[in-house]
């Protein structure tokens, strides 16, 4: 199984040095964002991709650019909603240009016909370039469910975020609900109270065994960790990556165990 991690994982390190550390730790895939506000931190997307390819890292998902306060406008009439639609299409175009597997999308607000029409226009472009979008579970379960209920399209996929599921909708089984739509993962742990984007070594509230059982039904899935490390630790960035990779390997072992059971 491929094992990936977010390009920025909590330490402000020179981009090329960071890529080397990711590669040397054992990860073979990387996820990143189109957000230009992160250029100072990560370098321009074109530069990032150049580094990823130089060190042999597979491109996994690409996260859309966004400002949370603006996202609800996607579902409302007006120029701001149209601007968000056009921006998302630009991000899909970038995913196609550089070779990412999909674009991860955040949605907030209240479901509406105007938003539905915009999303259908986005999906029409997805068809054109053969790049899917993956709706991520955040804190608006109702909106996510309404979107998939009302829009049926083979380029409309799901991104499962383990950390969000744990402290925002702990009792909701997203992996079972969207087992047909699942295309990418944002794996991370927390203390059950805050969105820490860390690993279980530091805070453990995610039921990884349950996740492994669900993921065992897929022939191929990239174990991508969206790590921002919003917690105080004494370990170095190199050690953090080592522990993160070991946790990815442990999850893989759990998945393989359940796959063997499934075949019996």
Please indicate the percent range of residues in DSSP E strands (runs of 2 or more). 5-15%
Order of strands, widest sheet: 7-6-5-4-3-2-1-8
Helical proportion, percent range: 40-55%
**Structural class, from secondary structure content?**
alpha/beta
Number of strands: 8
Mean pLDDT: 97
Extract low-pLDDT stretches.
none
Rg is 18 Å
Describe this structure in words.
- The chain is of the alpha/beta class and 264 residues long.
- The chain has helices spanning 15-25, 39-42, 45-54, 79-98, 113-129, 141-150, 162-168, 174-177, 208-215, 237-263; strands at 3-6, 29-33, 58-63, 102-105, 133-136, 156-161, 182-186, 223-225.
- An 8-stranded parallel beta sheet has the order 7-6-5-4-3-2-1-8.
- Strand 3 (58-63), helix 4 (79-98) and strand 4 form a beta-alpha-beta unit.
- Helix 4 packs parallel to helix 5 (113-129) and helix 9 crosses helix 10.
- The protein is globular and about 50 Å long.
Write the layout of secondary structure elements.
Blueprint: E1 3-6, H1 15-25, E2 29-33, H2 39-42, H3 45-54, E3 58-63, H4 79-98, E4 102-105, H5 113-129, E5 133-136, H6 141-150, E6 156-161, H7 162-168, H8 174-177, E7 182-186, H9 208-215, E8 223-225, H10 237-263
Parallel strand pairs: 1-2, 1-8, 2-3, 3-4, 4-5, 5-6, 6-7
Helix pairs in contact: 4-5, 9-10
């Amino acid at each position: 199984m491929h094992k990936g991690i977010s390009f920025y994982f909590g330490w402000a390190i020179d981009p090329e040095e960071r890529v080397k550390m990711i590669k040397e730790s054992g990860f073979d895939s990387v996820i990143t964002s189109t957000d230009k506000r992160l250029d100072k931190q990560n370098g321009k997307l074109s530069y990032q991709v150049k580094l990823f390819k130089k060190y042999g890292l597979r491109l996994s998902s690409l996260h859309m650019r966004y400002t949370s306060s603006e996202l609800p406008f996607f579902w409302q009439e007006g120029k701001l909603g149209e601007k968000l639609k056009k921006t998302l299409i630009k991000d899909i175009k970038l995913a196609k240009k550089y070779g990412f597997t999909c674009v991860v999308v955040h949605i907030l607000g209240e479901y509406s016909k105007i938003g539905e029409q915009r999303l259908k226009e986005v999906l029409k472009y997805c068809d054109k370039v053969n790049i899917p979008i993956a709706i991520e579970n955040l804190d608006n379960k109702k909106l996510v469910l309404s979107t998939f209920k009302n829009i049926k399209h083979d380029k409309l996929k799901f991104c499962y975020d383990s950390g969000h599921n744990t402290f925002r909708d702990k009792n909701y089984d997203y992996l079972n609900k969207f087992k047909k739509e699942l295309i990418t993962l944002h794996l991370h742990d927390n203390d059950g109270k805050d969105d820490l984007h860390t690993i279980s070594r530091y805070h453990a509230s995610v039921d990884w065994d349950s996740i492994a059982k669900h993921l065992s039904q897929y022939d191929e899935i990239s174990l991508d960790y969206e790590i921002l490390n919003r917690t105080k630790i004494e370990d170095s960035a190199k050690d953090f990556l080592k522990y993160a990779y070991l946790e990815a390997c442990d999850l893989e072992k759990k998945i393989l165990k359940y796959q063997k059971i499934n075949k019996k």
